[in-house]
Amino acid sequence: MSADLKQRIQQFYDQSSGLWEQVWGEHMHHGYYGPSGRQRKGRRQAQIDLIETLLAWGGVRSPQTILDVGCGIGGSTLYLAQKYSAAAVGITLSPVQAERAAARAGSAGIPLSPIETQTANAPSRTQAFFQVADAQSTPFADQTFDFIWSMESGEHMPDKRQFLQESYRLLQPGGLFLMATWCHRPTDSLAGPLTADEQRHLEAIYRAYCLPYVISLPEYGAIASDLGFTDLSTTDWTAAVEPFWGDVIASAFEPSTFQALLRSGGAPLQGAFSLQLMSQGFSRGLLRYGILAGKKAA
């Protein structure tokens, strides 16, 4: 990952995470509104439902050493650690996010300890740790984790293959990798390659959210298969998550939120002005919400 891209991603989340938490809570990802997207619910409940539905779809049972890639302010990390009484590590490029995640763990009474201490002493006790790290080149030893969770972080990776390869390295034999990520539509169908207009739409989203590029779900599946992942499964949950953007846009125009956005400026305001780009990308069939699960051979 280039130093410039790392810095832009870091600054984006350093600047925007506090406002997101204030308005939308600790989970910095889409919500789940039922398979067809027609279930009405509060956005925070929808975010919890996305976590639980993804865990069920992936057949996650009782992991004991968890890596949360792109952990934000620790929403998923702490949720998974508590749910499974597990040792969980969250990594992010944002020091602000890592610090806030650690503070949230303290408020929840969850001990903080590095993964080496977790696995050596009490892997079955709820623990967490947060650190700044690049998901394409992590500081962890081979076969450290039995479950790797990537909730909307793949889109930030400039080398998708390297990201999946690093995840494979970190998994224990039989361990599970479970990913939800922004994708563009498949290009191997009758619709054909992306059009110039679609490319321009994607590039506007890349600029707004500090993304290098996105790929299609079939491309992710091909990379994972080539790297040796077994028991591969993929599915498209675009319809299930699309209503989230309408909820976020509506909340952005609530008086208190709108005033906070204006005061914040910078990345938060840029992201808010780009919400419609995301909504339109989903509605025109360009953006897709891809899910992938795969295991490391035992």
From TrEMBL:
CDD domains: AdoMet_MTases. Residues 66-75 are annotated as: SAM motif I. Gene3D superfamilies: Vaccinia Virus protein VP39 (3.40.50.150). This is Methyltransferase domain-containing protein. GO terms for molecular function: S-adenosylmethionine-dependent methyltransferase activity. InterPro entries: Erg6_SMT_methyltransf, Methyltransf_11, PiNMT-like, SAM-dependent_MTases_sf. Transmembrane segments: none annotated. Residues 67-178 form the Methyltransferase type domain. Residues 143-151 are annotated as: SAM motif II. Signal peptide: none annotated. Residues 170-179 are annotated as: SAM motif III. Keywords: Methyltransferase, S-adenosyl-L-methionine, Transferase. Belongs to the class I-like SAM-binding methyltransferase superfamily. gTMT family. It holds the Pfam family Methyltransf_11. PANTHER family: GERANYL DIPHOSPHATE 2-C-METHYLTRANSFERASE, ZGC:194242. GO terms for biological process: methylation. It comes from the Bacteria. PROSITE patterns: SAM_GTMT.
